[in-house]
Amino acid sequence: MYEGVVQDLIDELGRLPGVGPKSAQRIAFYLLQADPADVRRLVEVLTTVKEKVRFCATCGNVSEEELCRICRDPRRDTTMICVVEESKDVIAIEKTREFRGTYHVLGGAISPIEGIGPDNLRIRELMTRLANVEIKELILATDPNLEGEATATYLARLVKGMGFTVSRLASGLPVGGDLEYADEVTLGRAFEGRRSLEY
Amino acid sequence: MYLSSLALKDFRSYEELALNLDPGVTVFIGSNGFGKTNIIEAIGYLTTLSSHRVSTDAPLVRIGTESAYLKGVVENLGRSTTIELEINPSRANRGRINQNAQRSTREIIGHIRSVLFAPEDLALVKGDPNERRKFLDILLVLRNPRYASTLSDYERVLKQRNALLKSAAGMRRVDVSALSTLEVWDQQLVAIGSELILARMQLVSALMEPVARNYKHLAEGHEISLVYQSTIWQNPQNSKQVELAEVAAGFRIALDGVRKREFERGITLAGPHRDDLLLSLRTHPLKGYASQGESWSYALALKLASYDLLRSDGVEPILILDDVFSELDTTRRDRLSDLISKNEQILITAAVPEDLPAELDGRRVAISRDGDSSSAGGVL
Ligand SMILES: [Zn+2]
Question: Are residue B146 and residue B90 in the same domain, yes or no?
Answer without folding.
Answer: no
